[in-house]
Amino acid sequence: MVIGTEGEENQQLWQMATPEIVLQFLSSGTKARKMEEGVSAITKRRYWRLLDRIYEFALANHWVERNPALAIRQWEKPAQENPKGAILNHKQWLSGLSMLDQASANEPIPARNHAILLCLYETGITPEEVRSLTLQSCVRDPATGSITQLQIDGAGVNQRRRFTASNTLASALANWLAHREQLSKAHKTEHLFCSTHGRMMGADNLHLLVREHLLMANATTDTDPAMRLGPQVIRNTRLVHWVNQGTPKSQVAVWAGLKNEKGLYHLAAHFNPQLDTHLPG
User: Fold this and answer.
1) Residue pLDDT, tens place only, 4-46
2) Contacts of 219 (CB under 8 A, 6+ apart)
3) Whether the Cβ atoms of residue 118 and residue 250 lie closer than 8 Å to each other
4) Share of the chain above pLDDT 90, in %
5) Are residues 107 and 170 in the same domain?
6) Are 163 and 192 found together in one domain?
7) Is residue 249 a contact partner of residue 221, using CB atoms and an 8 Å limit?
8) How far is it, in rounded angstroms, from Cα 280 to Cα 124?
9) Which residue among 181, 210, 227 closes a domain?
10) Nearest to 243 by CA among 229, 231, 259, 255
């Protein structure tokens, strides 16, 4: 195994790596999935942690004389991830919603994705809950047949709950269900948001869908992308908005499917200090 940037002249056997080579690798040896985005600080930090663990194990087994990942200067180490829950800023949130307002969903996959994103923005349910929704999750008015509510059937404490669907969400769900019938394999699963193969939507596919949406939304703002670019960041932002709009945290915890208010601790730094946002100890 070698470490360093591409090109044999820049690479060294891992046992012979120096702190300088580790630093060079972290700066230019890692690759982004999309080159135009660059390598994030989070990715660099995770690579450094991986190298640190490898060399610590090697040191314990006397395969190397020192840990070069630990030997680099403190200020040169990739910054630690911010432990507080990441959220979208106001511009990013509004841009994302605006994109959904303007979206055209006249084909099955765009219709599905539009409905998924609206579910996330409006209800703040977890990624797993989105993926686990079934056809029976859409509660209809007995008289009109229109979708009026969304039923969440989580297995944990307080995870069974029901949301009133806005006209926008109800329309998006109805549009997706009409297009869903066009997928030849959709009948193979009861999952609401199925894949084209007739299976439950994969976690990676959901993450990539949301990531692409958030990057496009952020491109219309003059701000840096959020620290996280997956469905959880939309959930976090929705929960923070509810609290900052004056909704009691006990109620937000219920809507979020949390056991109690302590489940909001990781978001406390984003609460409006002018509101009574004290969380129980």
Assistant:
1) 554 544 455 777 878 788 777 877 766 655 544 566 676 777 7
2) none
3) no
4) 56
5) yes
6) yes
7) no
8) 22
9) 227
10) 255
